[in-house]
Amino acid sequence: MKLRHLAVSVLIGAVLLSGCGSKQTMAPVVSASPSSTAVHQESSGLVSSESAPSLTGTNSAEGSSSGSSAVLSRTASSVTYIPPVLKSVAESAEASPSFLDHAVFVGDSVTLKLKNYVLKKRKSDPGFFGTAAFLTAGSMGSGNALQPLGKDSIHPYYNGEKALLEDSAAKMGADKVYLMLGINDVAPYGVEGAAENLETLTKRFCDKIPGVKIYIQSATPMLADKQKKTLNNPNLERYNKLVSEICEKDGWYFLDVASGMRDDTGSLKRNYCSDPDDLGLHFTDAACDVWIHYILTHTGG
What we know:
Blueprint: H1 36-43, H2 67-75, E1 103-107, H3 109-122, E2 133-136, H4 142-145, E3 157-158, E4 161-162, H5 165-171, E5 176-180, H6 186-208, E6 213-217, H7 233-250, E7 253-255, H8 285-296
Parallel strand pairs: 1-2, 1-5, 5-6, 6-7
Antiparallel strand pairs: 3-4
Helix pairs in contact: 5-6, 6-7
């Protein structure tokens, strides 16, 4: 008698989310320290190899295993990619760049690229992107941004001094804060821990700058052939889903920037990738143009 094994395919569905305010408070749950070696190997140098204690949620670089089968399923030509549907800020008429006056953009090396692009454009167009300012660091994530200041801590400098993000944003006179973090968090903290760390960090901004408008941007995708066991597009989509739900709960704006960066497989469009032979997740100038247009057409009214 012949037995046939039936393969079970798992569809990863993504749901909702949007919106600033501090409707609820949530104390961080302290858990064990992730393996710094595992973090370094998982992200191929994207994340700092410095060991940092997990502040909340799943704490292992192997903590999210569901992404592996999804990555494999997407490589099969018979599988049709279904993009996640998240509750995010609706599209509106394009705002003037002055909308971004007094805005501060917080992020890792992906946002650092945006900063460099904006500064380049301002050489010929001083009003480009309004007066928006940036707080970026190459290996920064929500997890290490929550760590105390120190010689080896990953915190951006402001006016020549290393400072906590919320303190720098307050000194910069921010009335809007745009955060894009997560790609350096999913491997060391897991999907859930990464999302919870971002919520904890964002509440620090709300506490430090009363009335500030919070815009949380989705983590953006990677090239298909650069995905890792834990740091991969399915897990980044799971992270974005959780973050969008947090935004809806806490009254923050959620911007699904990733939706404009994906190809028909859910991966970063190759012509938007500036490092296809390296990490496969940083942007070209063309991607920055798409990003800026998205920001100015999704202001939240």
